[in-house]
Amino acid sequence: MPAFESTQFTVWLLQALCATFLAILFLQSGLDKVVDWKGNLGWLTGHFSKSPLRGVVPLMLGVITLMEVCAGALSAAGVVALVVTGSAFLAFLGALVSAVALVCLFFGQRMAKDYAGAGGLVPYFLLALAAVYLTRQG
After folding, report:
1. pTM of the full predicted structure?
2. Is 1 helix (H, G, I), strand (E, B) or coil?
């Protein structure tokens, strides 16, 4: 962790805050899908019943669950690494997987014609992009 008075502290703090936010967001969401797989599958089956994706809902749920848990775990590990070593590499990977997961979620919402739900993902996506930028190496 850089010294509080240094100019690097502000960047480090932004990296840590973004990684913390993404860790909470995706660990909660991903673990909820693991714990309540049946409930999520039932809701999503109805949500996609009139979309071209209706036949692949279980596969999509598995993929997005894996992506969310990975994004959350990498982001959480990134926070620890930022505090312990100052390295932003794991936070970068977490932000990158988060952004890809959000693109997948956005695609699903648009295919289900849930335009309000898709629009609600935009602020999260912008945060993930900011985190990718802030944690990039070099």
Report:
1. 0.92
2. coil
Give residue 127's Cα distance to chain centre: 10
Closest of 66, 67, 72 to residue 26, by C-alpha: 72
Sign of CA dihedral 122, 97, 35, 23: negative
Distance of CA 50 to the CA centre of its chain: 26
Summarised one tens digit per residue, pLDDT across range 54-88 is 999 999 999 999 999 999 999 999 999 999 999 99
pLDDT tens digits, 82-125: 999 999 999 999 999 999 999 999 999 999 999 999 999 999 99
Half-sphere exposure of 95 (CA within 13 A, CB side): 27
Nearest to 99 by CA among 130, 60, 125, 73: 125
- Contact predicate 91/97, CB 8 Å: no
134: nearest Cα among 6, 20, 30: 20
CB 64 within 8 Å of CB 98: no
